[in-house]
Specification:
Layout (H helix, E strand, L loop, with lengths): L2 H10 L2 H6 L4 H35 L2 E9 L3 H7 L5 H8 L7 E9 L8 H16 L4 E3 L2 H7 L14 H6 L4 E5 L6 E6 L6 H5 L8 E3 L6 H12 L1
Parallel strand pairs: 1-2, 1-3
Antiparallel strand pairs: 3-6, 4-5
Length: 231
């Protein structure tokens, strides 16, 4: 089929008449492709967009809460954890599907509180900003890191969110903080027991306090996790 005929067929001749004048399947298929190519491309793009949206909906996970753990002992975790997912286990305990709901965990920040490098100082400033903006809900870190934040109002007093009877039964696990401005003593965090779920997950060799960030929007959720994980 020459170029003159192609142009004339597409511009001046109805589709049915044009196809009737062709003798081979190859000619007809080529003509149809030229005739409908733009439409086919638009439909293809539309299907890709719809598929992407549907895939996003089907695989979307709702965040239950978020966790910041500082100075996780990675080599110990890799050795001891053995693939156990503490947070997925908790979601199942709450009757939630880990495929649809997630606990967002950040556990890759390391800070040396002695002989700080520029990077350590920068990480401390980033965490300060995240405390202020409410980026995470649960905070776990060694005492040195806690002392940098907790006395200045970065965490909640757990007396306000954990049941009094539970707190009294676990008094030996309190991490007490004296507030810099008022001198008030609060329960800033809870140390997990040595045989607790949190300890068995293998994030730390020596257990560190867990607490609730001051801008946490649903502290009852975090309180439930702390009680479950610390025992």
């Amino acid at each position: 089929m020459n170029e003159t005929w192609q142009k004339k067929s597409k511009d001046d001749i109805p589709l049915k008449e044009a196809l009737a004048s062709m003798n081979t399947f190859r000619e007809k298929a080529g003509y149809l492709w030229e005739y409908y190519r733009a439409y086919a491309l638009m439909i293809g793009i539309g299907l890709l967009v719809i598929g992407g949206v549907l895939s996003g909906i089907l695989h979307h996970q709702t965040a239950y809460f978020s966790v910041e753990m500082v100075n996780v002992v990675r080599s110990y975790y890799d050795e001891k954890n053995l693939g156990n997912d503490l947070f997925a286990e908790y979601l199942k305990e709450q009757g939630l599907d880990p495929e649809k709901t997630k606990i967002e965990v950040s556990d890759n920040r390391d800070i040396k509180m002695d002989n700080q490098s520029i990077e350590d100082a920068s990480t401390l400033q980033i965490l300060t900003a995240e405390f202020s903006s409410g980026t995470f809900d649960l905070f776990a870190a060694p005492e040195g890191v806690w002392r940098y934040y907790a006395p200045f109002g970065a965490v909640m007093d757990l007396r306000k969110v954990l049941p009094e009877d539970w707190l009294m039964a676990h008094q030996d696990q309190w991490y007490l903080v004296t507030m810099e401005e008022t001198g008030e003593e609060i329960i800033g965090g809870i140390y997990p027991a040595d045989d607790s779920r949190f300890a068995k997950a293998g994030y730390y060799i020596t257990q560190v306090p867990m607490g609730i960030a001051i801008r946490c929007k649903e502290p009852e959720k975090i309180a439930g996790f702390i009680m479950w994980a610390a025992e």
